[in-house]
Amino acid sequence: MNATPVTGLPDIVDRAEWRKQLDAFRAREKEATAAHDALSA
């Protein structure tokens, strides 16, 4: 059995992929913040 060890660390990616994922995360975070603000209003 030659399984990849699970380390809990993120994958190593190039700068373009990292930026793409960061932008996607920020978009989801912005949506969550807007939803929370709407509930608080």
Task: Write a short abstract of this structure.
With 41 residues, the protein is an all-alpha fold.
The SS-based structural class is mainly alpha
Low-confidence stretches: none
What's the gyration radius in Å? 16 Å
- Give the number of helices: 1
What would your notes on this structure say?
The structure is a single chain. This protein is an all-alpha fold and 41 residues long. Helix content is 63%, strand content 0%. The protein has 1 helix and no strands. The chain has one helix at 15-40.
Layout of helices and strands:
Layout: H1 15-40
Descriptive tags:
single chain, 63% helix, 41 residues, mainly alpha
